[in-house]
């Protein structure tokens, strides 16, 4: 008389176990999905930070080459036009160090690819690929205990503002001097203001300027 009850108890136990397994599998799936989403988000954050940092360094490199390659005055009355930023480019790999640094600051991510390229005469872009890999306090990578890694890509650009005009001024060239003693180049753009760089002698590499004063002639942003 008690056998049917035992069969019912067994069927109920099997159903409970099956339900528990389903709940467990769903929970594990949600956990894996959440970890993957979190890793992708961290990787993208690292890529964005690395690309923007690289673009910032590219901007300063661009400014340096622009101002240090200005042709000196040809005569005491040469107060004419000077070169704008489109006459020069940033150094190759100018932002690689900054990209590596900022990627590492975001969950120990690493830069797996760095590509710097012009996009016309007034725009330079950099694309950075990163791999997110968070490390715990003991120094063991999370990926060894199941946390997934993730890759991401970001591109940033440095764009020179439109309407930048530069000209020479304050040319000091005494009558008996065989060459210029000192001179300046002043640059301006609509809605931005002006900035001045000074030179000693005919060597443009002697440029003396405030990099941040000239940085206002450029815009930096992430692009698709």
UniProtKB/TrEMBL annotation:
Q: Per the record, which residues fall in region Disordered?
A: 73-96
The record's listing under InterPro entries reads: Tad_N
Q: Name the UniProt key words of this record, in alphabetical order.
A: Membrane, Transmembrane, Transmembrane helix
Putative Flp pilus-assembly TadG-like N-terminal domain ranges (all copies): 10-56
Q: Where are the transmembrane segments?
A: 12-34
Q: So which domain of life are we looking at?
A: Bacteria
Q: What is this protein called?
A: Putative Flp pilus-assembly TadG-like N-terminal domain-containing protein
Q: Write down the species.
A: Sediminivirga luteola
Q: What is the lineage of its organism?
A: Bacteria, Bacillati, Actinomycetota, Actinomycetes, Micrococcales
